[in-house]
Structures are given as structure tokens and as C-alpha cells.
Design a protein that fits this description.
Helix content is 80%, strand content 0%. It has helices at 3-11, 17-29, 35-64, 66-87, 103-125, 132-150, 153-171, 174-178, 185-208, 215-236, 240-261, 264-282. It is an all-alpha fold. It starts with a helix and ends with a helix. The protein has a domain at 172-283. The longest helix is centred in the N-terminal third of the chain and has 30 residues, at 35-64. The protein is built from 12 helices and no strands.
């Protein structure tokens, strides 16, 4: 409660003057939490650091050399993961807390460096050839393993993003991606399958109690990917009524689940996508 509220209580005679003074002294002397401020600063620092690595590579690669840069990034990645493996608690299907304050940030930094390293090696030396799906599949597997073993939602989000990239590259010929032809039916179908699969896996994780707190992240990605893909099908194909019915069916299921779980977020998201689809059909 604010100091003005206590002042009003004192003026109304609900608390004595001595009690008001005691409360006022307590409010002034109690510690202020900097937890979220520090978390924000650390996450911002990691993003700036990884961005700085990219800028450094771009500006000074001719001076430093590719091999040196790859070695430095690789060593930093190894150090981050060795630290996390050493400090991590034993794996559990239940939620586990971080062993210390720095653990989550070092793990996230290591995963971002891993993505930078694999992308750099593929771009410079083309080690995977034209098999771009393999270049996204390997970091995807490592990220999923890291997310579950170290129990990190941020790394799980990176893993799902890589899964979406791998699914898109695998389902679509590389030439279509280079031509930016994202209105392709294969991408739409793969997005629907991926979105539905993520939602199903979210329910399965919760029911089997295997990292049940990952449910929201899976369901969040799955809902958006599924409904965006359905909207893309509505805009792309001529069978408008069929796709509208598909969106309505998916939206009805998600809407019912949102009411059951009392999730205002998914309720609003589902209604928003349905409104967009309805507006397109009516117009």
C-alpha cells in the first residue's frame, strides 16, 4: 500500500499515529527488489553481445580470418556448455530451479553461440552442401536436449523456432525459399501439421507430467503457427469456405480449451484469428 493510503487511514482514526509512524519507517527501510531489473539487463547484455559478435565478424573478418573467428566462437560455446554441465542439477521430469543466478544466462549465451557457429561454418565452408535441412536439424536436436536437460524455457523457444525452420526447409524445395515464394502450398500444409503437432505435444507433456511447465510454450507456438497457416490457406486457395470451416473448427477447439483452463490470453488470440478470417470471407 502507498504512503498516502496509510495517511488517510490515520486521518480517519483507523490506525493510531504511532502505528502510522511505525508503518512509515518500515516502508522506508524495507529492501527494494532488483530481480527483474537485473534479469532484463542480463538478457539485454546477452543479445547485445551476440549481436556484437556478428558485427565483429562482418567488419573485421578480412583482418582476423575465418579460422580464428570460428575457433574463438567455438571455444566460448564449449566453455559455456561445460560450465552448465558442471553446475546443472540432475535431470527431472518436474520443474527444476537454476543452480545459481548466472546459470540461465550462460546457457542462453552458449546456445546462441552454437547457432552462430553452425551458421557461420555452413555459410563460409558449406560443410552440409545443399542440405540446408541438416544445417538446421543438428542445432535443433542440441537445443531440445539442452532445453529439457537444463530446464530452460528460452532455449526451448529457440529449439521450436529451429524446428519450424527445419520443417519449412524440408517440405519446400530450396529454390522456392531463395525466390521468397512463401505462398507455396507445401509450406502451408507443413505449418498446419507442425502447429497441430505442437499443440498435441503440449497436451501430452501436461498429461504425462514430463516438463508440464513447457505446455504453455508449445501451445503458444502451435496455436499461432496453426492458425496463421490456416489463414494463409484461406488467402492462397480458392476453396475459401473449406478453409474458413477449418479455421472455425480449430478455433472452436482452442476456444473451448481456453474456457476450460481459464486462459484469457488464448481466448483473445483465438477470437482475433477468427475475426480476421471472418472479415476476409465477408469482404
Amino acid at each position: 500500500m502507498h504512503n498516502e493510503t496509510f495517511q488517510k487511514l490515520s486521518e480517519d482514526g483507523l490506525i493510531s499515529e504511532s502505528e502510522f509512524i511505525t508503518i512509515q519507517q518500515f516502508e522506508k527501510s524495507k529492501p527494494v527488489s532488483l530481480y527483474w531489473d537485473l534479469k532484463t539487463l542480463l538478457y539485454t547484455g546477452i543479445i547485445l553481445l551476440t549481436s556484437g559478435v556478428g558485427i565483429l565478424i562482418y567488419k573485421y573478418i578480412d583482418t582476423i580470418g575465418h579460422d580464428v573467428m570460428i575457433t574463438i566462437i567455438g571455444l566460448c560455446w564449449i566453455i559455456c556448455f561445460l560450465y552448465c554441465i558442471k553446475k546443472a542439477k540432475p535431470y527431472s521430469n518436474l520443474k527444476t530451479s537454476s543452480p545459481n543466478f548466472w546459470f540461465d544466462y550462460i546457457l542462453l549465451l552458449g546456445c546462441l553461440l552454437l547457432l552462430t557457429l553452425i551458421g557461420y561454418i555452413q555459410f563460409q565452408y558449406n560443410v552440409f552442401g545443399n542440405r540446408w535441412g541438416l544445417a538446421t536439424f543438428i542445432p535443433m536436436v542440441l537445443l531440445f536436449i539442452s532445453a529439457y536437460y537444463f530446464d530452460h524455457l528460452g532455449v526451448l523457444s529457440l529449439a521450436i523456432t529451429n524446428l519450424a525452420a527445419w520443417a519449412g526447409i524440408t517440405a519446400t524445395p530450396l529454390g522456392l525459399i531463395k525466390e521468397n515464394d512463401f505462398g507455396n502450398a507445401q509450406i502451408i500444409y507443413s505449418g498446419i501439421v507442425l502447429g497441430a503437432g505442437l499443440i498435441a505435444f503440449a497436451f501430452l507433456s501436461n498429461r504425462k507430467n514430463i516438463k508440464a511447465h513447457f505446455e504453455f510454450t508449445y501451445k503458444n507456438f502451435g496455436t499461432h503457427i496453426l492458425l496463421i497457416s490456416c489463414l494463409a490457406g484461406l488467402f492462397y486457395f480458392d476453396t475459401i469456405i473449406l478453409w474458413f470451416m477449418l479455421i472455425a473448427a480449430a478455433g472452436a477447439g482452442l476456444f473451448r480449451h481456453s474456457l476450460h483452463t481459464r486462459s484469457f490470453y488464448f481466448l483473445v488470440v483465438t477470437l482475433l484469428y477468427f475475426y480476421i478470417a471472418l472479415s476476409y470471407v465477408v469482404i
